[in-house]
Amino acid sequence: MSSITLASADLKQLLARVALGDRTAFRRLYDATAPSLFGVALRIVRQRDRAEEVLQDAFVNAWNRAAGYQAALSQPMTWLTAIVRNRALDELRSGARHVAESLDEEEDSDASAIEDTQPGPLGLLEQAADALAIRDCLDSIDGSQRQCLALVYYHGLSHSEVAAHVGSPIGSVKVWLRRGLDKLKRCLGATSE
Amino acid sequence: MNYDRAKLLDRLAAEYVFGTMSARVRSRFNAIQRALPAAREAVHAWEQRLTPLARSIPPEKPSAAAWKAIERKIGGNASPSFASTWLAWLKPMLGVAFGVVATLGLIRLYPTAIMPIDDIVQERGTLPASYVGLLTDEANKPVVLASSTRHGSIMSIKILRKVELPTGKVLQLWALPPDGEPFPLGVVPAEGKSTFRMTDTSEKLLSKVSRLAVSIEDAPAGAGAKPAAYVLTGNCVKLW
């Protein structure tokens, strides 16, 4: 979203003040970024209460680590998104064990939750590609690879979950993802960011 | 850096950031990152590359309770998140161990990488510069382990033996400079682990401090406060 890019310098200022323990700045940083970051977490863990826990842990983490934030190396949103994604993926993976042990219906409900989320993961990937002006490059990636990439990045699906979702053997999914990532790296490397 | 290892780290970093690693492999790769600057750099590069993709995700408003919980967690007596405590705690204390574990982890993940990563441990062969304090009770039994990196301002606390604390009271950690008044550092829990942010970096606050102490207070001590009787004391040493 362009508003985030525009606010990046302000966010850097806020983070610098947060590093000094400024709680007012921290609240402003939260107000400015929490909805976007909550959206990221929610897509991955798929439950509002778990996503809120992820968001809370991520912000506490950001508060503790703000002094180590290096403005020259990373945009504030990139830094914060990485914290949220990492926490969300840890949460999802730790929960994956429970899902595997639970009834099949639960997994089905997870799968349907993905279908119900609009726009779907592939739509998000295409929108991002449009915004980054790499749509042509993305379109050159094979359709199955594209779908796998989108399911993994936006919903945090594991290899086996992607395989079940697209109805392909896990070996093929791994190869698609590896190749897809290589191609995506080239596409993203061609952007100005 | 060895080219094969750089390629391997790039691939692992891609899978880590992208999210395809299992919980077990993620946790091992987290350890590798803590020990290897090159791994952190590879992850950073992938984060820079992939994060723009997240911008197409529609924002969602979290509940008002989320902020309240955060506020509570970063408060003076808050118990920080497990992840931050764990990280802050492990970094200063287990640098060498991580170097070794990370190497073994990488080898276990990718056995073919044994040769290229021989120099991994060399890259991080010593503990990071830190201040470490070990406080003991009257019977000289260790009770509180306090540590913080030299240029950081987060103090990590591990309670080695549960402290009996009357309800409504707090355990206040003090720095005791040899030629000045004791000054408060923060509040420590009666058991478990926690972290708190100090008013400045360890280097600024502790470079001349050789002793630490804990007293039982009615409330967290502010600047200029005088300590009640110490229940725990110990040495504060420089780990470099």
Would you write up a description of this structure?
- The complex is a heterodimer of chains A (193) and B (240).
- By secondary structure, chain A is mainly α.
- Chain A has 11 helices and no strands.
- Chain A is 80% helix and 0% strand.
- Chain B is of the alpha+beta class.
- In chain B, strands 5-4-7-8-1-2-3-6 form an 8-stranded antiparallel β-sheet.
- In chain B, helix 2 packs across helix 3 and helix 2 (23-35) packs across helix 6 (95-109).
- Residues 76-85 and 111-124 of chain B have low confidence and may be disordered.
- Classes of the chains: A mainly alpha (193), B alpha+beta (240).
- The interface between A and B is large, with 64 and 47 residues.
Structure at a glance:
By secondary structure, chain A is mainly α. Helix content of chain A is 80%, strand content 0%.
Task: Count every helix of chain B, treating DSSP H or I runs of 4 or more residues as helices.
Answer: 8
What number is the mean pLDDT of chain B?
Answer: 81
**What's the N-to-C terminus distance of chain B?**
26 Å
Q: State the helicity of chain A in percent bands.
A: over 70%
The largest β sheet of chain B comes out as: 8 strands, antiparallel
- Strand percentage of chain B, roughly? 15-25%
Strand and helix order of chain B: HHHHHHHEEEEEEHEE
Poorly predicted regions of chain A are: 1-6, 97-112
Please indicate the percent range of residues of chain A in DSSP E strands (runs of 2 or more).
Answer: under 5%
Note the overall shape of chain A. globular
The total count of strands of chain B amounts to: 8
Oligomer: heterodimer
Mean of all residue-level pLDDT scores of chain A: 84
Radius of gyration of chain A: 18 Å
Radius of gyration of chain B: 21 Å
Instruction: List low-pLDDT spans of chain B.
Output: 76-85, 111-124
* Distance from first to last alpha carbon of chain A: 14 Å
